[in-house]
Write a structure and sequence with these properties.
The chain is mainly beta. It is 13% helix and 35% strand. The strands form two sheets. The chain has an eight-stranded mixed β-sheet. A three-stranded antiparallel β-sheet has the order 4-3-10, with no helix packed on it. The longest helix is centred in the middle third of the chain and has 9 residues. The protein is globular and about 35 Å long. The two termini are 17 Å apart.
């Protein structure tokens, strides 16, 4: 099975669930236009596998794409096994993995709403090497 995008999501503020969108526009060295996490830093775009969300659903949580504040929800690719520096192609967009997981210093709204969060352990972050539009069902390839 090939890897693909399940959903793309954005939020105006950090630390909150993101809302699924029909498409997102990524700008080189910036991130997703209109998203709180965009900017000149190493965590411009966040990705989380649908398989990770499924683990939380199996625990009885009513969660879905965007609920862990990820920008791009994927299927069919083991994100946490990708080394920093790996490049991922999604249509015209090229992302470079910049960080695996993160330390959550404070319990965010997601933790309180969901009771746990898979993002710190299983989410990854990337910078935008080349921009473009990403939509659900777009194919993902390792470059």
């Amino acid at each position: 099975m090939s890897a693909s995008v399940v959903a793309v999501s954005v939020s105006e503020n950090k630390g909150e669930r993101k809302k699924p969108a029909p498409a997102v526009h990524l700008r080189e060295n910036y991130g997703i236009i209109g998203d709180a996490h965009a900017g000149d830093w190493h965590r411009q775009v966040s990705l989380l596998a649908e398989e990770s969300i499924d683990k939380m659903i199996a625990l009885g949580l009513a969660v879905g794409p965007g609920d862990f504040a990820e920008n791009i929800t994927t299927r069919g690719i083991e994100l946490v096994t990708l080394p920093v520096g790996t490049r991922i192609g999604i249509g015209p967009v090229v992302l470079e993995v910049s960080q695996i997981g993160k330390v959550c210093h404070t319990r965010c709204a997601i933790y309180y709403q969901a009771g746990d969060c898979v993002m710190p352990k299983e989410g990854i972050f990337a910078t935008v090497v080349s921009g473009g539009v990403v939509r659900p069902e777009d194919k993902i390839e390792l470059l």
